[in-house]
Write a structure and sequence with these properties.
This protein has 124 residues and is of the alpha+beta class. It is built from four helices and four strands; from the N terminus they run αββαααββ. It has one domain. Helix 1 runs antiparallel to helix 4. The chain is elongated and about 50 Å long.
């Protein structure tokens, strides 16, 4: 019989998966990542995501816009893989995906919403 994982263990698995995903698809991983399961949502905060080239580009408005567009397109093109990985960890399909990146802070926030209350899986 498979042992139930704790909420913290699932959050850690999602964090590790996002670090791997960022390294493979964005070129480098974040300096820090935290994941929080909140009812039917997962909030993921990745700090230190910008490459040195992106930090250089971010010195003006046009560069900031370019970074946001490229990052959004890269994530969009890889969204099916991300969905497969997260579904494998949580056992639930997510129904929406929201993300934004702060160029000033060098961090990305990802919010996933699920078909069911994921947090309820951890109340024994």
């Amino acid at each position: 019989m498979a042992q139930k994982r704790s909420k913290g263990q699932v959050e850690a698995e999602i964090s590790a998966a996002l670090v791997s995903f960022e390294k493979e698809h964005m070129g480098r991983g974040p300096v820090d990542v935290s994941t929080h399961i909140i009812k039917d949502m997962v909030l993921i905060r990745l700090k230190g995501v910008l490459t040195p080239a992106e930090r250089h580009l971010a010195k003006d408005a046009a560069g900031i816009q370019l970074i946001k567009q490229v990052r959004a397109k890269l994530l969009e093109n890889s969204s099916n893989l991300l969905k497969e990985v997260i579904t494998g960890i949580t056992g639930l399909q997510f129904i929406s995906f929201h993300t934004d990146i702060s160029i000033k802070e060098g961090e990305r926030v990802i919010i996933l919403t699920f078909e069911k209350d994921l947090e309820k899986k951890f109340h024994y």
